[in-house]
């Protein structure tokens, strides 16, 4: 379906001036405005505000994603967002923290990787820990590659590749024999680097 002239004009205005739509009563318009604000650093404080208070989870999620892509200087708002009631917001905030390589988020990410009720959030936390590469995360990743749900174990394979040492090598070799085929496949792809 082709957008009407009015819809095209609205979208063009939103792209030219996303700030004018951040307070729209329509959550879809606000979400689009947030995405369009990625290159408008003067609007990033507004996105931080919306991340914590917008009633629509999709808008809060878009704020987290946009702030991660934009390279937010202070990761604290994203660390705060990992406590959001909505899993889609927590996942986006965690992913953004990984993109920002926010080492200060390590303890929060470790807790989410181990305890979050949503598997996608746990996966995102594991990926973020790998992106950050903080040695403090290695013991958690070594435990999760052994005992986590299959999706988390698979994600741990990739996350552990940034670490070195005999425990990491042993964990990856063990994962290549995991009972789950997607974990085995992921581990087999990286275990070749340890070939004798």
What would you say this structure looks like, in words?
- This protein has 196 residues and is an all-alpha fold.
- Helix 2 packs parallel to helix 4, helix 6 packs parallel to helix 8 and helix 7 runs antiparallel to helix 8.
- The chain is elongated, with a radius of gyration of 20 Å.
What distinguishing features does this structure have?
12 helices, 196 residues, mainly alpha
Would you kindly provide a brief summary of this structure?
This protein has helices at residues 5-16, 27-36, 44-53, 57-70, 76-81, 87-99, 106-115, 119-132, 138-147, 150-160, 166-175, 181-191. The chain is mostly helical and 196 residues long.
Provide the structure class.
mainly alpha
Largest sheet: none
- Stretches with pLDDT under 50, minimum 5 residues: none
Work out the strand percent.
under 5%
Q: What series of H and E elements makes up the topology?
A: HHHHHHHHHHHH
Q: Mean of the pLDDT scores?
A: 93
Based on CA atoms alone, the radius of gyration comes out at: 20 Å
Counting DSSP E segments of at least 2 residues, the number of strands comes to: 0
Question: Distance between the terminal alpha carbons, to the nearest Å?
Answer: 59 Å
Number of helices: 12
Percent helix range? 55-70%
Shape: elongated
């Amino acid at each position: 379906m082709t957008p009407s002239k009015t819809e095209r004009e609205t979208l063009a205005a939103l792209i030219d001036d996303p700030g004018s739509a951040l307070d729209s009563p329509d959550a879809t318009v606000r979400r689009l405005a947030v995405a369009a604000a990625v290159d408008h650093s003067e609007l990033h404080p507004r996105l931080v505000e919306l991340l914590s208070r917008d009633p629509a989870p999709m808008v809060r999620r878009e704020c987290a994603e946009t702030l991660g892509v934009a390279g937010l200087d202070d990761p604290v708002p994203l660390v705060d967002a990992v406590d959001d009631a909505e899993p889609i917001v927590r996942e986006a905030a965690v992913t953004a923290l990984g993109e920002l390589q926010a080492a200060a988020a390590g303890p929060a990410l470790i807790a989410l990787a181990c305890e979050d009720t949503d598997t996608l959030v746990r996966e995102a936390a594991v990926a973020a820990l790998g992106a950050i590469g903080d040695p403090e995360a290695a013991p958690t990743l070594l435990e999760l590659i052994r005992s986590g749900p299959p999706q988390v174990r698979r994600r741990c394979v990739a996350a552990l590749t940034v670490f070195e040492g005999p425990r990491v090598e042993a964990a990856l070799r063990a994962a290549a024999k995991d009972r789950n085929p997607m974990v085995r496949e992921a581990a087999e792809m990286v275990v070749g680097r340890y070939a004798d």
